[in-house]
């Protein structure tokens, strides 16, 4: 299954559990990061004049996720990113599984609605990246565009959470799907 992999964590889980070609993973990751980087550049250009008069530390959240309040711990944010991405991966697999009445042309709508639900459910803790490219590439851009090292050092080096948690969550979601549901063909777990 190739599909519209916009998320490096989904790409990795597809490579591990669904035979996505390993030799294409790096190319997909580079493309996903470049796409998110270009998106950050576009947001910066469109809002350039506002960024010139605003305090940089108050605008960093436009580009990247982070702890949304002082009462949210890094562990809670990690959990939100992990479980949110696990649910995303479960739905991606469930709606594309040939042995499970695949969603076909409405799969993008289902996934889009799921992302809205996940943001509403888990956004309070972390801002809900669910995608390492969505957070890492904009961090690199803003570090270069004037925010400096604050892009990586803010909130006690929080930057690793929206990278690690989605990868772990996508793998856990795919593993859960294969253990509990998957019956289309032999799972990598049964080999």
Automatic annotation (TrEMBL):
<feature type="transmembrane region" description="Helical">
    <location>
        <begin position="72"/>
        <end position="94"/>
    </location>
</feature>
<keyword id="KW-0472">Membrane</keyword>
<dbReference type="InterPro" id="IPR000425">
    <property type="entry name" value="MIP"/>
</dbReference>
<feature type="transmembrane region" description="Helical">
    <location>
        <begin position="106"/>
        <end position="124"/>
    </location>
</feature>
<keyword id="KW-0813">Transport</keyword>
<dbReference type="GO" id="GO:0015250">
    <property type="term" value="F:water channel activity"/>
</dbReference>
<comment type="similarity">
    <text>Belongs to the MIP/aquaporin (TC 1.A.8) family.</text>
</comment>
<feature type="transmembrane region" description="Helical">
    <location>
        <begin position="26"/>
        <end position="51"/>
    </location>
</feature>
<keyword id="KW-1133">Transmembrane helix</keyword>
<keyword id="KW-0812">Transmembrane</keyword>
<dbReference type="InterPro" id="IPR023271">
    <property type="entry name" value="Aquaporin-like"/>
</dbReference>
<dbReference type="GO" id="GO:0005886">
    <property type="term" value="C:plasma membrane"/>
</dbReference>
<dbReference type="Pfam" id="PF00230">
    <property type="entry name" value="MIP"/>
</dbReference>
<dbReference type="InterPro" id="IPR050363">
    <property type="entry name" value="MIP/Aquaporin"/>
</dbReference>
<dbReference type="InterPro" id="IPR022357">
    <property type="entry name" value="MIP_CS"/>
</dbReference>
<protein>
    <recommendedName>
        <fullName>Aquaporin</fullName>
    </recommendedName>
</protein>
<feature type="transmembrane region" description="Helical">
    <location>
        <begin position="159"/>
        <end position="182"/>
    </location>
</feature>
<dbReference type="GO" id="GO:0015254">
    <property type="term" value="F:glycerol channel activity"/>
</dbReference>
């Amino acid at each position: 299954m190739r599909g519209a992999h916009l998320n490096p964590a989904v790409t990795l889980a597809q490579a591990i559990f669904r035979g996505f070609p390993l030799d294409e993973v790096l190319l997909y990751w580079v493309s996903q990061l470049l796409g998110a980087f270009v998106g950050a550049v576009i947001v910066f250009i469109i809002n350039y004049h506002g960024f010139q008069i605003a305090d940089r530390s108050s605008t960093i959240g436009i580009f990247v996720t982070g702890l949304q309040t002082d009462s949210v711990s890094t562990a809670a944010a990690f959990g939100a990113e992990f479980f949110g991405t696990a649910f995303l991966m479960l739905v991606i697999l469930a709606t594309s599984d040939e042995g499970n009445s695949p969603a076909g042309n409405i799969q993008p709508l289902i996934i889009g609605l799921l992302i809205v639900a996940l943001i509403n459910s888990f956004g309070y803790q972390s801002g809900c990246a669910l995608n390492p490219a969505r957070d890492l590439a904009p961090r690199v851009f803003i570090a270069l565009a004037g925010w400096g090292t604050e892009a990586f050092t803010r909130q006690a080096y929080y930057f690793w959470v929206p990278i690690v948690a989605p990868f772990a969550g996508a793998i856990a979601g795919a593993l859960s799907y294969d253990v509990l549901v998957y019956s289309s063909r032999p799972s990598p777990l049964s080999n």
